[in-house]
Design goal:
Elements: H1 2-22, H2 27-32, H3 36-66, H4 73-89, H5 95-109, H6 111-135, H7 137-143, H8 147-172, H9 185-198, H10 204-228, H11 235-249, H12 260-271, H13 276-303, H14 305-308
């Protein structure tokens, strides 16, 4: 009953926020801007989205190897593509993580190693996103003149950065009780692994580059969408506005980020002195690109060996 109520709440939040955001959009005017060139840009956005998944796979493999759950490239790619499908269908923006965890654990890595690999992967990605936003603050402040927008940007970003750095500091602590007390044992273990990965001579630089590239590719996807409808938004403006929106969209309060992303993108464009309806237009098409990629992931899931074996193989007991 609790899960049903939570899912229902997220559906209602998505619906309410989408309704409020779509009131600013003239869908007939949006569709009238589509041309043959638009299809090229949407196809380019889809191609970049698959490249983003592949880059994420490369990072995840580095992290999962450190967690004791090594993955072949093809298997990791399949799991991430399948995860993109469940990101669109489960009541959360990170529902695909739960499915990836289940797939890795079922493949023989065990629940602990699988959970650690997903959690650390998500944490490092969040830290990289916060760093990008902090590094671009001087230009963001020049773009966003509204004081409320500036305050919101600072609050969200520094909260994420503080959480990420606090997580790393937590992993550097050596108090023995952190490793034995049930409330801190697993979180501390994940933080230790994250420190090991980030500050590793063999993995640190590559993981950092891959983490930053994942978020830069999200900006490229948004810019391709901007080009598809000839919106009056530059690449620089897109680079400054999209990362904070993606950070807020990570909050698991809606279905695949729908509603939250549109409302936040509209606000971000408005704070930057751009047309709020263009922000909603870009967000809708941005979501549509990921929906198409997710649909492909659904096809991969249907045809996968994991789907065929569902229910026939033991999963084991969580460690």
């Amino acid at each position: 009953m609790r899960r049903i109520l939570l899912s229902t709440a997220k559906i209602l939040i998505s619906a309410a926020l989408l309704y409020l955001a779509l009131r600013k959009v003239d869908l007939s005017e949006l569709f009238s801007r589509f041309t043959a060139t638009s299809l090229f840009w949407i196809a380019a956005a889809i191609a970049v989205a698959f490249l983003q998944i592949f880059v994420g796979v490369l990072r995840w493999r580095e992290i999962s190897a450190e967690c004791g759950a090594p993955l072949e490239l093809s298997r990791a790619m399949r799991y991430n593509v399948i995860g993109s499908f469940f990101n669109q269908t489960l009541p959360s923006a990170i529902g695909g993580d739960a499915v990836r965890l289940w797939l890795v654990a079922r493949a023989g890595a065990g629940w602990r190693a699988a959970t650690y690999s997903i959690f650390v992967d998500r944490a490092i990605g969040l830290i990289a996103l916060a760093i990008i936003i902090v590094a671009s603050l001087p230009w963001s402040y020049a773009l966003i003149t509204d004081p409320h927008g500036r305050s919101a940007l600072l609050l969200v970003d520094f909260a994420a950065l503080a959480g990420g750095l606090g997580f790393l500091v937590f992993g550097a602590l050596t108090w023995p009780w952190l490793k034995t007390w049930w409330a801190t044992h697993h979180l501390h273990a994940c933080a230790v692994i994250a420190n090991r990965v980030i500050f590793s001579r063999s993995r640190g630089l590559s993981v950092a580059i891959l983490s930053l590239l994942v978020h830069v590719l999200a900006v490229v996807i948004a810019w391709c969408v901007v080009q598809s409808i000839a919106a009056p938004v530059s690449f620089g403006q897109t680079f400054l506005l999209v990362p904070p929106v993606m950070l807020i969209t990570l909050m698991p309060i809606s279905i695949a980020g729908w509603g939250v992303r549109e409302a936040t993108m509209g606000l971000a464009f408005g704070f930057a002195g751009l047309a709020a309806n263009e922000g909603v237009n870009v967000s809708l098409l941005f979501g549509a690109v990921y929906f198409i990629v997710g649909a492909f992931g659904g096809l991969v899931w249907i045809l996968s060996a994991e789907k065929a074996a569902q229910g026939s193989a033991p999963i084991g007991v969580p460690e």
